[in-house]
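[Primary structure, fold]
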Amino acid sequence: MANNLFNPDHALESQIRDFSIIPLSMGRFLIASDSKSIFYDLENSRIQLTDIITLNTETERASILAPLDKFYFVKGSSTLWRYVNDEWKSWPSSGSGGTVSRAVDAVLTVAGWVNNEQVVNIVGLTANQNGVAGLAQSVSALELEAAGNASMYVCGQTDGSITIALGGDKPTCDIPITIILLN
């Protein structure tokens, strides 16, 4: 069963090639929205993935009688596969470089607090999946102060959502957050 490991960020190819605009981040996929090229960040380099075979379904992939040692992208599952050494591996495989993660940005709105809690919907999240929630990198000084005074914490998780609770003051402004989901 596929894990949807292929969750790329999108930018213009010129931005992707400029590390001052988009710094290297180990394990990140990027798709150039203008050229449709796919890039992958390794420890000290960004590589462009080429010669990818596109398939519609996992059934189509599984029915290939003589797969080539190449990359295969399955549209239906949004999974990037690599056939290598007579074996299918979702790429990057969890055994080849650590845990794969996905970042989800959300905003805790002033109006969204009900009984000092706010539900954040996250497509694909499972009730037992590990992850980390924190303030987004774009947080302003005002938002940072409000978040500090709010003493927010994750108080619940179900399939498709997490719940953030207040341990302090209700924020008077929206708070941008980022949730890092581990697969």
About this structure: The longest helix spans residues 141-150. Helices lie at 13-16, 58-62, 141-150. Residues 17 and 134 are 28 Å apart (CA to CA).
